[in-house]
Amino acid sequence: MINYVIEDYLKLLEDAGLTVSFRLFGREKTPVTGLTYESGKSASGTLFVCKGALFKEAYLREAVDRGAVLYISETDYGLEDVPCILVKNVREAMPLLARMYYQIPKGALSCIGITGTKGKTTTAYYVKAIFDEHAKHTGGRPMACFTSVELYDGKERSPSRITTPESLELYRHFRNAYDSGISHVAMEVSSQALKYGRVQGISFDAGVFLNISEDHISPVEHKDFQDYFHSKLLLFRQVKTACVNLDSPFSRTILRHAAAAERIVTFGTAPGADICGYDLKTDQGKVEFRVKCPAFDGAFSLAMHGIFNVENALAAIAVAYSFGIPVEDMQAGLSRATVNGRMEEFQSRDGKIRAIVDFAHNGLSFEKIFETVKLEYPDFRVTAVFGCPGGKALNRRKDLGLVAGKYCSHVYLSTDDPGPERVQDICREIGGYLKEAGCSYECIPDREEAVGKAVRDAEEKTVILVLGKGSETSQKVGHKDIACRSDSEIVRDCLRKYDELSRQQF
Fold it and tell me: Is the pTM of this model over 0.90?
């Protein structure tokens, strides 16, 4: 890659109309060899971006001490002999800086963006499974995939910190994918990423809008549903083919905005969908359905539980159809695709306990998973272990409490990223809605203890839903990320102990 110099970045920002002022101290020709907003990652030659409401001057001083040669900020920190460019909006500047620094050739990567309230992660992995199946027959590389579970770019595979990375990380992953010979990327696109410009400038060859329901409403996210919905709809401003779910209650509004795309492919079980699913069946957890579209009429099966996953599968088929991928690759990919922490089922040796681990964490996903459990296990008692995050998505406490209360005989409320709040306070608020729905509950802050008690309390055939964390291995407590075991690991261990005790008793 070319190492652009400081004056190149100044011209970039001036041409974009973002520059307020600058001081370069005669260092216009200094090469920029690094780009970050994390002071601890600054090194000799770094361009350092000052971003965030909680940014402190101490971070900038650390970056300079480590070798930063230029900082870009909305605030003038007045550092002597340190070049700076002041901009109107640092978030608008970031994707421009990243694109210049990482130098990915135009059209080198085909990007698929997926948004919606629920199902983004599963849909991304379904898309990857189909494209990877196709790559086996065409000599291509496995698809890059950026999800709320992990980031894979051909060079790196790491757990995700947020659903959609900041633009500086995104472009670094794009560069890694390009250098690895990867041609396609599937990624989740969150409402926050769209609202705050993290994906600004990215041209999506296909953009999927799965569904929408009230979520992420809080002082630090979206002020109301209209703001949340509007942010999601921004995706269509940068999409070539829009894939829209006709089964969504807001499909008319979504289609109206999707008209900004060059092409629209609809999917769903509603009559008239371009990718139309029908004859949906579930038996012992196995999901089967048929799909009719202009190119084929064929049978599909899913490796994952949950009739609601047909919606995600139809979205992935719509994407694959828009790329001209053969139906055989779609069928084979979906028949094998699984996602850690999504509809993972475990059962005791005696068959009395079925435990399902899933990332479901909002009202819509709760409705879908509880409906599926009632359909697949009609003669089982249903209990659940879950919590809610602290300081954000405040509407979830009511939604989750009312939905779980409608389906469960008992609920074990526990820790789920409490952040700045006390777990007991969050549980008490959710518990009020559980009571309103006529469901008993108890608060057990230790998540492992909560799962263990749910297993021990299962005196009859019981499905235990462990929801909200999936495969995640950390809890946000205060301002720290505390390591923890994944729900899957906890459930597996609790059932092993249950099986051992059962053997001793008989």
Answer: no
